[in-house]
Amino acid sequence: MAMIDEERWSRTRVILEDLKQLTADIEAKRMMAKPNIYRKFTSDLDVVAIVSVGWICYKVITLESYIFDIHWKLLIKYINYLCLI
To answer: What is the dihedral of CA 37, 41, 43, 48, to 10 degrees?
Structure first.
């Protein structure tokens, strides 16, 4: 009977040691994953910021040229109107 209990205890101890090692490995992987996720997030954030600034510049330039075209068209219409009078 004592032999069976000792054998069970030895198996239980091996299982617990394996579980302890497994949890340590998982914790190490988790700690390595955090910097990787942070690095990916910051690089994605950099790309989004650059694209946003580029989009703002594009819209300002196209809106400026559109307003510039409208002013010239109005000026030409006004000049044509004055010439017809």
So the answer is: 160
Tokens for 81?
Answer: 């109107």
Query: Using CA atoms, how far apart are residues 60 and 63, in angstroms rounded to an integer?
Result: 5
Radius of gyration of the chain, Cα coordinates, nearest whole angstrom = 36
Kindly give the parts of the chain with pLDDT less than 50. Answer: none
Report the alpha-carbon distance of residue 39 to residue 45 in Å, rounded: 10
- Tokens 């650059």, residue located: 50
- What's the CA gap between 30 and 36, in Å, rounded? 10
* pLDDT of res. 50: 94
Q: In the chain, which ranges are continuous DSSP H helix?
A: 2-84
Pairwise CA distance, residues 53 & 34, whole Å: 29
pLDDT at residue 52 in the model: 93
Tokens at residue 31, please? 């700690």
